Amino acid sequence: MCRGYPLRLESIEAKVLHNRTNIIKGILLCSKCKRWYPIINGIPRMLPDEFREDYGHFIKDLPKAIYKKYKFNRKFFTKFTS
Ligand SMILES: [Zn+2]
Hints:
Layout: E1 8-17, E2 20-29, E3 36-40, E4 43-44, H1 56-60, H2 64-70
Antiparallel strand pairs: 1-2, 2-3, 3-4
The chain binds zinc ion (ZN).
Zinc ion (ZN) binds next to loops.
């Protein structure tokens, strides 16, 4: 599952701590299988499909620009611009 493949990161909320940028909220995207994974409270949620939670509320709260850029559904995104 997405191993060894570079994931794309969209940062939504970040904090700089001790000269390091920590992503508090964001999305990881795999251009190979078109899956997306949320980063919530600084933790990437990358469980396999059978353990995946419903992130409907997460999608709803996304900034419009990011939502439009990728067009998310529960598991996948349908647009990808590089
Ligand atoms: Zn993948």
